[in-house]
Design brief:
This protein is mainly beta. It is about 0% helix and about 50% strand. Strands 2, 4, 5, 6, 9, 10 and 11 form a seven-stranded mixed beta sheet that branches. Strands 1-3-8-7 form a four-stranded antiparallel beta sheet, with no helix packed on it. A hairpin with a 5-residue loop joins strand 5 and strand 6. The protein starts with a strand and ends with a strand.
């Protein structure tokens, strides 16, 4: 079993920044890859970014490339998402996910465990 807990969401003006955190616990082999997804009202959940725990290979969606940075801290078993130059269209609930794969996948099916989500609201 893996437990995930997101934090760091909030309200920010367009152009601002936020940093999300995802604290992970449980079997390390089951969380070798971690990712961020988001879901805006009335829309499907979409991939944002992912990172492998070993090697730190990263993947980003086109919509956040160059603005968001995913990272991890092994000592704290925590993944981060630094979000800069935020836009109103970034408004969504952001979910942390973990899986036992070996690549930083953009597919939700690659992840077995999900956090409860944290709300990010960007005002114009």
């Amino acid at each position: 079993q893996v437990q995930l807990a997101e934090s760091g969401g909030g309200l920010v003006q367009a152009g601002g920044s936020l940093r999300l955190s995802c604290a992970a616990s449980g079997r390390a082999v089951s969380r070798s890859v971690m990712g961020w997804f988001r879901q805006a009202p009335g829309k499907e959940r979409e991939f944002v970014a992912a990172i492998t725990w070993i090697g730190g290979s990263m993947r980003y969606s086109d919509s956040v490339m160059g603005r968001f940075t995913v990272s991890r801290d092994g000592a704290k078993s925590t993944m981060y998402l630094q979000m800069n130059s935020l836009k109103p269209e970034d408004t969504a609930i952001y979910y942390c996910a973990a899986g036992g794969g070996i690549i930083a996948s953009s597919a939700a099916a690659a992840y077995d465990y999900w956090g409860q989500g944290t709300q990010v609201t960007v005002s114009s």
